[in-house]
Amino acid sequence: MKYRVIKKQNLSKDCFVCGAKNPFGLKAKFYECEREDGEHVLLTVFTADHFHQSYPGRTHGGITSTILDEAIGRSACIGLDKQLWGVTIDLNIKFRKPVPLEQILYCETKITKQSHRSFEGEGKLLTQDGTLCATAIGKYLILQPDQITAEGVTPENWYYEDGEMPTEFILG
C-alpha cells in the first residue's frame, strides 16, 4: 500500500508515545496521509526498542495497545487546523502476530464515527512488509487540551519537530 504524506502532526517533549525527549519512549511520528485508494488515514511510524519487550524478541502487548490507542486518538485531527484531543473511553485490541522489536513499525488509523461529544476509530499495526500484527477499535471523549492538562499546551511541551518530512511510505 502506498501512502502520500500530507501533513506531519505535532509532538510532545515527554509523552511516552511521541515524546522526542523521553529516553524510554517510542518517539513515534504521526503523518496525515492519503492512501493510493484515496482514503485519508493517519500513519504512525515508530520502532519498539529492547526495553519495550515482553518475551525475547517480541514487543510487549501493553506497548502494542498503547501505540494503537494514541494513534486512533490522534486520527480525529486529520484535516483539522485546531487541536482536537480525545480521552479513551473504550479500547479493544486483537493480537494477531508477534510484534517484532528493533524494526520500523506502522499504525494505520482512521475515524469511523464522530459526534459532537465523542468519536470512534479503528487501527491496525503493521510491519514494513505489510504483516498485520494487531488491530484495535476504540471510543474517545472529545475534550479541549485545557480540559485535560492544567499545564496547557505551549511551544515548550507541544511542538512541531523540524527535520525532513517524507513524501510517501510504501508498505507490503
Could you provide a short overview of the structure?
With 172 residues, the protein is mainly beta. It is built from two helices and ten strands, in the order E-E-E-E-H-E-E-E-E-H-E-E.
Structure description:
This protein has one domain: Roll (Thiol Ester Dehydrase, Chain A), CATH 3.10.129.10. The chain contains 2 helices and 10 strands. The strands form 2 sheets. The chain has an 8-stranded antiparallel β-sheet. The protein has a two-stranded antiparallel ribbon with strand order 2-9. Strand 6 and strand 7 form a beta hairpin. It is globular, with a radius of gyration of 15 Å. The protein starts with a strand and ends with a strand.
Contiguous uncertain segments of 5+ residues: none
CATH class: Alpha Beta
Strand order of the largest sheet: 5-8-7-6-4-3-1-10
Strand runs, count: 10
Global outline: globular
CATH superfamily: Hotdog Thioesterase
For the terminal residues, how far apart are their CA atoms?
6 Å
Largest sheet: 8 strands, antiparallel
Helical residues, percent? 10-25%
What's the pLDDT, averaged over the residues? 90
Order of helices and strands: EEEEHEEEEHEE
CATH arch. level architecture: Roll
Instruction: Bin the strand percentage.
Output: 35-45%
Which characteristics define this entry?
8-stranded antiparallel sheet; two-stranded antiparallel ribbon; Thiol Ester Dehydrase, Chain A; 42% strand; mainly beta; 11% helix; 172 residues; globular
Question: How does the SSE layout of this entry go?
Answer:
Blueprint: E1 2-8, E2 11-12, E3 29-35, E4 40-47, H1 61-75, E5 85-95, E6 104-114, E7 118-127, E8 132-143, H2 145-148, E9 158-159, E10 168-170
Antiparallel strand pairs: 1-3, 1-10, 2-9, 3-4, 4-6, 5-8, 6-7, 7-8
